[in-house]
Amino acid sequence: QVQLVESGGGLVQAGGSLRLSCAASGRTFSNYAMGWFRQAPGKEREFVVAISRSGGSTYYADSVKGRFTISRDNAKNTVFLQMNSLKPEDTAVYYCAGSRRPGIVVPTDGHNYDYWGQGTQVTVSS
Fold it and tell me: For residue range 49-61, what is the model confidence (pLDDT) as tens digits?
């Protein structure tokens, strides 16, 4: 069992930056591909970015490519999401998730994730 706890959300003006963190419990963090998803009010959850177990592979949604950067520190059981040039449309609850599905290096489908955090609110004002 893995528990995920996000932090770092908040209110920021358009063009600003935030850095989200997701701390994982347990000693097998490096066995999980990790991802970030977000859900805006009245909208479905959407994929943002994923990173492979080693951190060597990543995949970004087109909407955040060039602005967001995912990274992980397996020694600290933490995955990060650096968000720059934030836009009002980035406003959402952001969730980190862990996947232990074999054979999927960077899962983009939420159904391929086994563990989810409680979410952290990101609000970008115009």
Answer: 999 999 999 999 9
Encode pLDDT of 64-119 as tens digits: 999 999 999 999 999 999 999 999 999 999 999 999 999 999 999 999 999 999 99
Whether the CB-CB separation of 93 and 119 falls below 8 Å is answered with: yes
3-state DSSP percent of the chain in helix, strand and coil, to 5: 5, 45, 45
Tokens of 85: 């040039």
What is the spatial distance between Cα 54 and Cα 31, in angstroms, rounded to a whole number? 9
* Closest by CA position to 20, among listed 124, 123, 126, 122: 122
The pair of three-digit structure tokens given for residue 11, joined into one six-digit string: 């209110």
**Residue tagged 């995949």 (tokens):** 59
Q: How many CB atoms lie within 10 A of CB 102?
A: 6
